[in-house]
Design brief:
The complex is a heterodimer of chains A (255) and B (331).
Chain A lengths: L3 E10 L2 E11 L3 E6 L6 H8 L7 E6 L2 E2 L5 H7 E4 L11 H9 L7 H10 L15 H13 L5 E5 L7 H13 L5 E5 L3 H7 L2 E6 L2 E7 H4 L3 H7 L1 E8 L2 E8 L8
Parallel strand pairs in A: 3-8, 3-9, 6-7, 7-8
Antiparallel strand pairs in A: 1-2, 1-4, 4-5, 9-10, 11-12
Chain B lengths: L3 H22 L7 H8 L5 H35 L11 H14 L6 H26 L5 H26 L6 H8 L8 H28 L3 H6 L4 H23 L5 H13 L3 H25 L8 H22 L1
Helix pairs in contact in B: 1-3, 1-12, 2-3, 3-8, 3-10, 3-11, 3-12, 4-5, 4-6, 4-10, 5-6, 5-10, 8-10, 8-12, 11-12, 12-13
The chains are: A alpha/beta (255), B mainly alpha (331).
Chain lengths: 255, 331
């Protein structure tokens, strides 16, 4: 069980402020969606939380330890990171990729690799090379490689964005299910997926957190319209409200 | 693992033995396998003695230089995650050659046998770090950008080397020695020197195998490599150092031999796949076969003259590079 606490993160690059004095506290369990317009700093925040980028100032604590003080290896075991794009330079097989993920942990049995291959229904694909896989298969392979060590924290950057809707639902469900007994933080572009599947939604804009609330509370919040610079119609369905964006001619009236 | 890489290894090993036999038989004075057997069995005739003392060590040295080039190519392609990376194209071999030229032509206070490998290593490492630095600063970190930086650095180093050769050579230090080196050519070693080269090659294989697992992780891309627990900056620095040791050894014993470091890893990857642990020894074997055969052609094609080895590999390897480049640009 590992919580994740960020304190006053600042990150600037080329004159632009990507993270602006951002603080955030995430418990040891839960499914959390991060939403926000392009350039809000969502991916940057995720990379800083994963220890892939260093902030200019501020700290991240993983459990009771400072992220910057962790060794690369123990950080990689504690935090799973799923990138937005993954394009390996060498055309490895499914088995080889999962095994590379497994080698993060020094006490992992062969069973774990077999088990994760089974969980993600990759049995028939073990010897297939990355270049021959479909988008949905690639997503499952990447999930398997990241989750094979069963990290207590998972940070995922829009891993499903380019998939068709069924595979997207598969991936999102896998990620949120981990939130039951672990921490699962996902950058989500599809707002309806964010509000429908995640317990907590964090909305970012210009390197800051604008709103941080349970999904059901945030969906009616007018700040949603302001941050995305559209007017949302909340369409009631049996499954809760669904958002439909309507362009506003002039955004001046939206604080 | 499955038996497939082992079978491929045995096949390659057998092919190398055949290549070595062909290499020993080839020359302006062709020997038959029977001559070879007799010579190895201890025949004292002049022809047999020449085979044992001149041709066999030369051929074995060529094989080892090829193996080093195969290893160096894998390390460079792995570090730069660039299938077109090669010690020769990235300026690393050029740096080693410049260092070696300085050792040969500039009178310095150390014995040449120590100075030459040392300066060759410094040159290989310096040139590689320079290329990385240039491509980082100019933002050209993609495959093509890094190659262009490498070509530019190689050109500058080549010019410096030519200048040194023109300015410093006189009757006492023959241009011929340096020139034959620049064009690539395995010198015939004595048996003790060959033993040393064997040790160095084995050491280089061991050194690069230590990097194999981390080269695999680096191949996932920098973000994923960090996410999987690799300290990327430190590893690249270590791997470039190790790669420079390998290149310096290859250049010190074989001069500037083009394109073997490019072709051998590719051919080996077709056979054993891209994982580095099987790839490194496979590429070493392929490199050894290529250079053994190229050296045989160099010695036998225009008797009694010898064509520089680097010219043979460039003529054969250039088209290979163009083919890879074309295929890469299409995708």
């Amino acid at each position: 069980m590992t919580s994740l606490v960020a304190d006053r993160l600042v990150l600037k690059r080329g004159g632009a402020t990507l993270l602006d004095d951002l603080s955030l506290s995430l418990g040891a369990t839960g499914s959390v969606a991060i939403i926000g317009p392009n350039g809000a700093g969502k991916s940057t925040l995720l990379k800083v939380l994963a220890g892939i980028e260093r902030p200019l100032s501020g700290t991240v604590r993983v459990g009771d330890r400072d992220l910057a003080a962790l060794s690369s290896a123990s950080r990689a075991r504690a935090i799973g990171f799923l990138p937005q794009y993954f394009d390996p330079h060498w055309d490895l097989t499914v088995q080889e990729l999962v095994r590379l993920g497994a080698e993060r942990s020094d006490h992992l049995t062969v069973d774990a690799v077999d088990k994760v291959i089974d969980t993600f229904e990759l049995d028939g694909l073990g010897r297939r090379r990355w270049s021959t896989l479909s988008g949905g298969e690639r997503a499952r392979v990447l999930l398997a490689a990241v989750l094979v060590v069963d990290p207590p924290v998972l940070l995922a950057d829009e891993p499903a964005a380019s998939l068709d809707i069924r595979h997207r639902l598969d991936v999102i469900e896998t990620l949120t299910r981990r939130g039951i007994d672990r921490l699962s933080v996902v950058v989500v572009h599809d707002l309806d997926l964010a509000f429908r599947f995640f317990e907590r939604v964090i909305m970012m804009d210009q390197g800051r957190i604008v709103a941080d609330a349970p999904a059901a509370a945030l969906i009616d919040d007018p700040r949603l319209d302001a941050v995305f610079k559209v007017r949302f119609e909340r369409l009631e369905t049996s499954d809760g409200p669904v958002l439909r964006a309507v362009k506003v001619a002039d955004s001046a009236g939206l604080g | 693992m499955t038996g497939a890489p082992i079978r491929t290894g045995l096949t390659l090993g057998l092919a190398l033995v055949l290549a070595i036999v062909v290499g020993v038989c080839a020359g302006h004075d062709w020997a038959t396998p029977a001559d070879l057997m007799r010579a190895v069995a201890g025949d004292q005739a002049l022809r047999s003695r020449l085979l044992v003392e001149w041709r066999i060590p030369r051929v074995l040295a060529a094989a080892l230089v090829g193996a080093l080039l195969g290893l160096g190519g894998v390390v460079f392609q792995g570090v730069f995650r660039n299938p077109l990376a090669e010690p020769y194209l990235l300026g690393s071999a050029g740096g080693a050659a410049l260092g070696a030229t300085v050792a040969l032509l500039v009178p310095l206070a150390m014995p040449q046998s120590i100075l030459l490998p040392l300066l060759a290593f410094a040159g290989a490492w310096g040139a590689t770090v320079l290329v990385i630095g240039i491509s980082r600063v100019s933002g050209a970190v993609d495959a093509a950008g890094m190659l262009l930086a490498g070509v530019a650095v190689a050109a500058i180093l080549g010019a410096l080397r030519s200048f040194l050769m023109l300015a410093l050579s006189d009757e006492t230090v023959s241009l011929q020695i340096v020139l034959s080196w620049v064009l690539g050519g395995v010198q015939t070693p004595t048996w003790p020197v060959l033993g040393l080269l064997t040790l160095i090659s084995a050491g280089c294989l061991g050194l690069t195998l230590l990097l194999a697992g981390r080269l695999d992780v680096l191949g996932l891309g920098e973000t994923m490599a960090v996410a999987f627990g690799l300290n990327v900056t430190r590893f690249i620095a270590v791997a470039v150092l190790a790669g420079s040791v390998v290149v310096a050894a290859a250049v010190a014993f074989g001069g500037l031999v083009a394109f073997v470091g490019l072709a051998a890893p590719h051919i080996a990857r077709w056979m054993v796949g891209p994982l580095h642990r099987p790839l490194l020894p496979a590429s070493a074997l392929v490199g050894a076969i290529i250079v053994t055969l190229a050296d045989a052609i160099a010695r036998a094609a225009l008797p009694p003259a010898e064509i520089p080895l680097g010219l043979v590999t460039a003529v054969a390897g250039g088209p290979f590079f163009i083919m890879l480049l074309a295929r890469r640009l299409r995708t």
